[in-house]
Request: fold
Amino acid sequence: MSGTRVAILTGAARGLGAATARRLAEDGLRVAVIDLAEPTAEASADAIIAAGGTAIGVGADVSDPSAVEPAVERVVQELGPPTVLVNNAGITRDNLLFKMTEGDWDAVMGVHLKGSFLMTRTAQKHMVDAKWGRIVNLSSTSALGNRGQANYSTAKAGLQGFTKTHAIELGRFGVTANCIAPGFIASDMTKATAERLGEDLDSYVAKRAAAVPVARAGQPEDIAHTVSFLVDERSGFVSGQVIYVAGGPRA
Reply:
């Protein structure tokens, strides 16, 4: 693959997505930051530009097909055809099953699963045309089951099957698809979880980190480094895999 690659990252205004966008820009990719609110997407892109990278911020609801097509077309017009896609956008609506509403269920499925489907369906045509592409979907160790997260766990497990399927379908076109399942990562979502549980953030992080074999919490950069490998030229024989980046062999 010659020339500078173009990457689209969803949910990249903060947290894991922003860290990954920064890393890919450092790797020399032109980066499109997509997030629900354009001002926050632009702020993330501006930070990349200030560091010497090339980026744009685009506001779009990835669960809305009428928003996805124009967002990808804007990337094509401003940066070029995308050959890297990182589906990171996600939300939580945690609750025990008997308390969970249909709205809680639908919202999580809409962003994680429908959003990844719409973005992948739209972006893959550019990869097929280029005969080269990299797709990375963000799952979670919650895919193995997690109390209070029936919706989130189901969506993250679904992304693993989704990834393996389009790895099979798109492989003949030079496109790989892989899935990263982060373990405990200290991020904005961690703060929200601690608040939901009524725990002090520092105490919550320390308690969770103590259970990790490498004896620390993960950082957004840990995920960014793994994405960097999976979208690199050298990872071309790695496809359809689920990589648990969790500090140990068990979630």
Summary: The chain has two domains: 6-183+219-240, 184-217. Residues 6-183+219-240 form a domain with the Rossmann fold fold (CATH 3.40.50.720).
